[in-house]
Automatic annotation (TrEMBL):
Residues 1-19 form the signal peptide. Keywords: Signal. The keyword rRNA processing does not apply. InterPro entries: Cyanovirin-N, Cyanovirin-N_sf. This is Cyanovirin-N domain-containing protein. Residues 22-122 form the Cyanovirin-N domain. It comes from the Eukaryota.
Length: 130
């Protein structure tokens, strides 16, 4: 009986919580600085691929000059010069962000900790890319 309750609890977890490591199933990463999006070509789990785009304002915030995973974080209000740094198996996104004290440090975050791929669409939190 305990096992059945545990499995039921796991099934109740939203898919967005399980998302992550998008680079394992997505390729051809790029960013569009005009609209703060990450673009990728992602496997749909059925042998096909689709292009997906995610508005990173929905996924990232600025906490004292540090990029953080944050639902509806609106990072771009206080960050600029953002773009990808492709570093081996991880995909790092870097910006210059205000720290609220007059400083503008360079900060980065591994997007594999923020973005997932579900059915060929990029996801973060409860937001599905297009």
């Amino acid at each position: 009986m305990y096992s059945l309750r545990f499995i039921s609890a796991l099934l109740a977890i939203p898919a967005s919580v399980l998302a992550g490591d998008y680079s394992k199933t997505c390729g051809q990463y790029s960013t569009d600085p005009n609209d703060n999006t990450v673009l990728a070509n992602c496997g749909d789990g059925h042998g096909g691929y689709r292009d997906s785009r995610m508005d990173m304002n929905l996924c990232l915030g600025n906490s004292g000059g540090t990029l953080v995973a944050q639902n509806n974080g609106g990072y771009h209000d206080t960050c600029y010069a953002c773009g990808p740094l492709f570093d081996g198996p991880t995909t790092t996104f870097s910006c210059i962000c205000g720290d609220g004290k007059g400083g503008w440090p360079v900060t980065s975050i591994d997007l594999n900790s923020v973005l997932g791929n579900i059915d060929g669409y990029l996801w973060c939190f409860d937001h599905r890319g297009t």
